[in-house]
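Following the same procedure, sequence and fold were stored together, as reproduced here.

>
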Amino acid sequence: MAGIDKDDISLPKATVQKLISEVLDDDLSFNKDAREIIIKSGIEFLMILSSMSSEMAEQDSKKTIAPEHVLTALKELEYDSFIPFLEQILTEFKGTQKIRERRDSKFKNSGLTEEELLRQQEELFRKSRSKLQNNAIPENIKTEQQ
């Protein structure tokens, strides 16, 4: 990587530890040196995959690395077994993006300012709390209050 020293790059230790903990049996533990090796290996793998993905994009005369380039790079690196899982994750991600885009466009197409929408939301919350509080009072107490 241009201008960046490999030793300056790291992965978040807490995240790596959480990933390791999810994989390990409860009766096993990982010491700090082993975690460091996992981190260094992960960084090396990401750098190799990034470089190969970049080559795939260049071959397609693209300046942006697309998911297809990463998947092709994984095939080239003989990590074919990862691909079905990653394609599933990509499909799920695209689905959540479409939902988010629809939600965003609904907001933009409403014609209301963010402040107006917040006021409407607060009013709906107030009505909901009021309705909840009225329904929480037992019937015999309601009739006594009236």
